[in-house]
Amino acid sequence: MKMILAMALLLLPGTAQGMPVPQDAAQADAPATRIKIGGGVATSKLVHKTQPVYPELARQARIQGTVRLHAIIGKDGVVKQLEVISGHPLLVQSALDAVKTWRYAPTLLNGEPVEVDTTVDVIYQLTQDAGSAPAGAVDPQLRADILHLLEVTHFKDRTAESGQKMFEPMRPIVTASLPNTANREKIVDAYITKLLALLQSDEFTEEVVTVYAKYFSDQDVKAITEFYGTPAGQRFNSVMGDFMGDLSKAGQRAAMENIPDILRQLCKEYPELENAPNVCPEAAPEKKSELLRQNPLGASVGVQLRSGN
Asked: What does the pLDDT average to over 57-67?
């Protein structure tokens, strides 16, 4: 009976992928000024979000995944139009019913509100039944709030960017490990693409949810989400990858510039290091101390001068 009902639902109007939701006649008029923005940016402007109801038949059939919708948001933040891009047919109608009630803060262009063309992802993930959840299972409300935080921070977009930077240096190693065939470069491309796909998978997202839940309470997650919903939070999120990279470089540079002086201090504090020439090189003669003070290369120049004597 369930199978027959599932097949019947697949044929219901409005559940086919790509079928637009009927709109009022007033919305058929020519659109006002409209801009296109990414789904993550639009999510940061959410002021009211109704959680979708998990369809019982989909739950019984253990169906989960993401429904992606194409949305037109009016100047007043009301969802004017929705169209299904992808998603399981048993989940589509639930996603449409929820998203059409969402409300967004108006998007301004030159100080004037405009319509927004964007995408919306609605994620359906089955959880353990109450009473049977394993130890350490994420509370459903906390999980929902973490997923919302990941939307606000454009988690999948940022992960794709950082993953590309992380995996690209592996290309020469992977290439060298493969036989020199005509399709070697295509194989490497496919390899990296598959690695990146792992970072975009629902399974990896669930791993990230678990890590967040390990370190942050639901109150923490909501506060973090509120910050990332501000212009400053969005700015920080957009530059965080490069920002952390520059911080790492600055730390490495500071260490390299100060290591010689740190070693000299340690050699004075711990006499047993005197017999380790790689740690405590022989002190430069006094007559060359002025040269050392004038040359920023310090002790390395002293070694060159002594070798020339």
From this structure: 85
